[in-house]
Amino acid sequence: MNALVPLPVVLPLTACGLSMFIGPRLRLLHRLIGIGVLAAVLAVDIVLLVEADRGGPLVVHLGDFAPPLGVTLVVDRLAALMLTVSGAVTLIVLIYALGQDMVDREERAPIAVFHPAYLVLVSGVSLTFLAGDLVNLYVGFEIMLMASFVLLTVGGTEPRLRAGSTYVVVSLVSSLVFLAGIAVAYAACGTLNFAQLAVRLSELPMGVRGLIEALLLTVFGVKAAVFPVAAWLPDSYPTAPAPVTAVFAGLLTKVGVYSILRSETLLFPGNRLSLLFMAVAFASLLIGVLGAVAQTDLKRLLSFTLVSHIGFMLYGIALGSRDGIGGAIVYTAHHITVQTTLFLAAGLLERRYGTTELTRLGGAARTAPLLAVLWFVPAMNLAGIPPLSGFIGKLGLMRAGAADGGTDAYVLLGACAVASLLTLYVMVKVWNLAFWRAAPSQLPLEGTVLEDVDDSDDSDDSDDSDASERPRSTGAVAVAPAGACVRTTARVPRVMVGATVAAVLLGLSYTVLAAPLTGIADRSAAEILARTPYIAAVLGP
Fold first, then answer.
1. For the CA atoms of 353, 355, 359, 362, what is the dihedral angle to 10 degrees?
2. pLDDT higher than 80, residue 22
3. Contact 81, 333 (CB under 8 A)
4. What's the rounded Cα separation, in Å, for the pair 76 and 216?
5. Which end of the chain is less crowded, N or C, counting CB atoms within 10 A of the terminal residue's CB?
6. Given pLDDT bands bounded at 50, 70 and 90, which one contains residue 490?
7. Cis? peptide before 440, omega within 30° of 0
8. pTM for the whole thing?
């Protein structure tokens, strides 16, 4: 089974090369390659999860070079669970994107640029979960950065270029800090392998160890978009096409959370920074959700809830107990799926009505009842309504906080309750404005968005001689000429709806499979807190 460990990284990169080799004309072949490879990656992820849960961490030293010389890939329960959830989500989002056909119909975007960039992104995410040393974790971050910039700026519109530039500048600065942390760690320990660092960091003076920890946490905090280094996120994500925003919101911030969890349990055990994590979690929970309350654009609103709910995961890490870490793992898996689903539903809403501005929406529950259901279920899941997985994750975290018994833990428990109530308020606000109330009058506005051409018949290989007669596309929708009105009768491609249904069902499956999910999370927490299984698997007994 160890031979399967590199495949989540290698398969998407191989498929990327094939996509670029076959050229832009064979769109159907691009689709088959992408879906087939990501389905194979998901199957491999599931096998790795079963094997890691049954027999302990799986380790591969590439080239058969032992640490610290060789590249080490490690799959323990935590990494395998994150790989499986991310594999399912990326497959669903790819199907959604192919249904939208967002890139191949954008005249100002390079033909078929989405497919290879998306596959590179999946490979980078997988590498960050598998990395057994700081260098390859850095490489995984940089692969994601390279692919992310391409996906954020698809179409080359001014808002996307501006948002992409902000994202790249922030990411490059954090990469420089990461390189500084790697340099200090290597100078102090003579290795960058996680297992060896876990042994040698404990022998360093407290000041040097604290410097390395501070540098790494700064980088991971930026990636996870925790307060106060989260200001870049609400301005970067909403401008991208719906599938891109969905996978970014669901996965990329969780890579930062995973890195924090891995480093704080394996490299810097003892939970010395519990109070700092409590303060950051408190600020992220409340400031993020208050920012969401103030928004009228649906995508920006969801971006602020993303910042807020990172605080729940940090709360579990701050507690440092087996129950707290287990609750954080459950909530991370839940949030990857639910946040992605909400952005996919927002993309459907934009596709049908031409806007995500809540003040211009209304009556969607009557005109699009299926779309209303696809929004309502994950919205209630995010708010933590029983018996959905959001409630299960929050209940686990709150029980761990109550068991801790400290004053700071109880303060954070109260902040979690307030953030949950305000999240429910925000979701109800969206429901009332966009779905429940009567539709507002649609006034002629210059630059108003029209619905896109319906491509549900997937006739991508047909003659595009009439392309000049189509409205100019900006991704999910098209820009209307001056004096046009918003139309609310656009049909949404069935493939997009089907992918969103699959995402909703995946989120609901966490409720049905709550016992196995919480069991794996609990065993993962015990394993990473013990540290010995990971170190022994990499270095030997």
1. 20
2. no
3. yes
4. 21
5. C
6. low
7. no
8. 0.86
